[in-house]
Specification:
The chain is α+β, with helices and mostly antiparallel strands and about 180 residues long. It is built from five helices and seven strands, in the order βααβββαβαββα.
C-alpha cells in the first residue's frame, strides 16, 4: 500500500491526463473483477470518449498523485425523456496500491456534487454482489440497494449477481 494521505488532487479529467487515465483503467480492468469489461478500450477509443464528455461537461473526476492518475469516478447523464433527472456511475476505479485510503470518498463526493450541479437528482450504479468492499463503500456514501439481477455476469465459467444501487442527491423532496 502506498501512503497517499498527502498530495492527492481530485480534479475534473482533462486531455493532458488521457494517457495516464488509460493506464490506470487498463490496470483495474486487468484485475477482471471490478469493471464491466476485462480489457480496457483502446487508447484512441478512450481519448475520443473523454474528449466527448469534456465537451459535454459531464461529471468525470480523477485522482492525481505525482502527475499520474490513480483513480477515477464518472457519472453519465440519462438522455431519455422522462429520465433526464438521473445519471449512472458508469465506471469508478482506484489503482490497487491506493485503495482503502479515502481517495474513493473524495472522488465520489466531487463527482456527486458535480452531478447535482449538472441537474441530476438521482444517481444509480451496478455493482457485482461479490464485490462486498465496494457495496460497503457505496452504502457508506448513501447508496441503497434497489434490487439484484441474478446470475447477470458469467466470467470464466463463474456466475455473479449484480446489485442495482442508487442515491437521491437532494433527498428532502423525496421524503416528504
Amino acid at each position: 500500500m502506498v501512503d497517499t494521505n498527502e498530495n492527492i488532487s481530485i480534479v475534473p479529467i482533462s486531455e493532458k491526463y488521457i494517457e495516464s487515465f488509460h493506464k490506470c483503467l487498463e490496470t483495474v480492468a486487468s484485475e477482471r473483477k471490478y469493471l464491466g469489461y476485462v480489457d480496457a478500450p483502446s487508447l484512441e477509443d478512450t481519448r475520443e470518449n473523454i474528449i466527448t464528455h469534456i465537451q459535454r461537461n459531464t461529471p468525470r473526476y480523477i485522482a492525481i498523485k505525482d502527475k499520474e492518475v490513480v483513480g477515477w469516478c464518472e457519472v453519465l447523464p440519462n438522455q431519455l425523456e422522462g429520465f433526464r433527472h438521473s445519471g449512472k456511475i458508469n465506471t469508478m476505479g482506484i489503482a490497487e496500491a491506493y485503495r482503502g485510503q479515502g481517495i474513493g470518498k473524495k472522488l465520489m463526493t466531487a463527482t456527486l456534487q458535480a452531478a447535482e450541479k449538472f441537474g441530476m437528482e438521482r444517481v444509480e450504479l451496478l455493482v457485482y454482489a461479490s464485490n462486498v468492499d465496494a457495496i460497503g463503500f457505496y452504502e457508506k456514501n448513501g447508496f441503497v440497494c434497489e434490487g439484484t439481477k441474478k446470475k447477470a455476469r458469467k466470467l470464466d465459467g463463474e456466475y455473479d449477481d449484480v446489485n442495482i444501487m442508487a442515491i437521491f442527491l437532494n433527498p428532502e423532496p423525496w421524503n416528504a
